[in-house]
């Protein structure tokens, strides 16, 4: 835990517990660690409901945690219908549920139970997928997001040691049958490695290679952040100003990911060519356009969101994320409260009214987040129809321009908060 700090004097942590040996052992170890520092942990057990018996397994896991004196909470997912990309959707829903539970408990440190064998398999999966150098770092011990610090303290620990910890404590665990499903890539790789204990030479070599790639990635990200600090201006309106000159591919990739709001970096080959010879282009949901000269500087370019790629509007409520990039940080109602039909969406055609007063290019203005009042009751209380929708829509506010239209008295704070900032947070190999 030492390199994953800093921690408060009496640390308060959460642990994601599936009920399997790895996460249950992590909960036991974290409980001892926190208790020795006058702290505490909260074990979060997510019942995904994807197979028969999942509720029973979650309850059994909660009982085992209780027997060990560990505080626990069972979270049941109810909106995961079967269909395509089920595993991916389930992972995302589980992460969201864990994030909300940590926020409700006032916890910022979430521990995950991935171990040495998991790391070895992740590296193999990345290699088979043609991952670039950054991806070969596999999983990081520490990743900082907008809401949480995700900690993986067991990446160097073989799974056999974790099972030994549980046996010594007299605790059983749940065996997930999906781990034996050879239709999935990870179980197939696990079977081919034939190293259940995670102590074989191949597992150790793969984990060491991932750690080496992790150290190299951390160094690149430090260099990337330093280069951005020297040459790039990242604006709170969600665009960047950069010199019209060759730029580091790592810097351009980080900027494109942040401006597009993408969870993962775009194709490196296309980015490398554009970084070597910057020119007007559209790539990975962003646009690179010429912008004359920067104040007091030479020719510059603007990197902004591609308008055609922007997501649909979302209801305006605290915590809502629009287009993967802008988050509603606060809603302070006044008078009648938050009206029904308040939506966060792009400014679009209404940008023409702000071109002269804002000083921002039209291409940027059109992509700004704006608050719209839609589907509001008409005269006599009737709902809007398709015919009068355009007439009934009202622009309420453009937070980044300081504009409030007077239709609604509520104050909504909107911040540029992409899932991975352009200047990366901590990445511990």
Q: How is this structure best described in words?
A:
The chain is of the alpha+beta class. The chain is built from twelve helices and 20 strands. The protein has a seven-stranded mixed beta sheet, sandwiched between helices. A five-stranded antiparallel beta sheet has the order 7-8-11-10-9. The longest helix is centred in the middle third of the chain and has 31 residues, at 201-231.
Short description:
With 429 residues, this protein is of the alpha+beta class.
Strand and helix map with partners:
Elements: E1 12-17, H1 21-35, E2 40-47, H2 54-67, E3 71-76, H3 86-105, E4 109-111, H4 116-128, E5 142-144, E6 149-151, H5 159-169, H6 185-193, H7 201-231, E7 233-235, E8 239-243, H8 249-260, H9 268-276, E9 281-283, E10 286-293, E11 299-305, E12 314-315, E13 321-322, E14 326-332, E15 342-346, H10 355-358, H11 362-365, E16 369-373, H12 389-392, E17 394-398, E18 403-404, E19 411-416, E20 427-428
Parallel strand pairs: 1-2, 1-4, 2-3, 4-6
Antiparallel strand pairs: 5-6, 5-20, 7-8, 8-11, 9-10, 10-11, 12-15, 13-14, 14-19, 15-16, 16-17, 17-18
List keywords for this structure.
429 residues; alpha+beta; 5-stranded antiparallel sheet; 12 helices; 34% helix
Number of helices: 12
Number of strands: 20
Shape descriptor reads globular
Low-pLDDT segments = 376-391
- Approximate helicity band: 25-40%
Strand order of the largest sheet: 3-2-1-4-6-5-20
Largest sheet: 7 strands, mixed
Distance between the termini: 13 Å
Query: Beta-sheet strand percentage?
Result: 15-25%
Structural class: alpha+beta
Average pLDDT for all residues: 86
Radius of gyration: 25 Å
